[in-house]
Amino acid sequence: MSVPDRAVFEAAYAGKAPWDVDGPQKAFVDVADQITGSVLDAGCGTGENALFFAGRGCKVTGIDFLAEPIERARRKAADRGLKATFLVMDALALKDVPEVFDAAIDSGLFHVFNDEDRRRYVEGLASVLKPGGRLFLLCFSDEEPGTQGPRRVSRREIEDAFAEGWTIERIDPSTFEVRSEAEQFRFSPGGPKAWFVTVLAT
Which residues are CB-neighbours of 168 under 8 A, at least 6 positions away? Predict the structure, then answer.
């Protein structure tokens, strides 16, 4: 399955991207009590997950490599009276971030990388999480049939990606919420199958 390039995401955000739902992904809401303090949202898109945690009192920084979703996220924060930092930044450059965080969330970013970039991304996450900090990750599962949408990720690939410097606490079956009008995609009823992963930075 091909890895999407910048043009794919620019085209998606020219309108409303299929994954840009009106609210946080349920998988993160379900573990909200475990996510406190300073939070990095890697690949934050238009900011719904980041703003959910900002509304719960977290100090949130969201990054995305495109300016358009970041501008939308900033407008949402202003409209809702929420304080959050949104930056245009490549998630493969996390090692350049001077701040370290208590937690990180990833909703749909891990699965867009090729193998080499995935390795760089995970190394970058390790550099911005405090020892004992946790990453909460939602990615496409290889149990989702078909080839539409992003690259599928197997449980083994997750285990391999976080084999060094991390402790995997949970890998649970989950689903992605997608926009109902995204009719060009044919996903499983209830949303595409996903993995929800909790890993501890050691």
Answer: 158, 159, 162, 197, 198, 199, 200
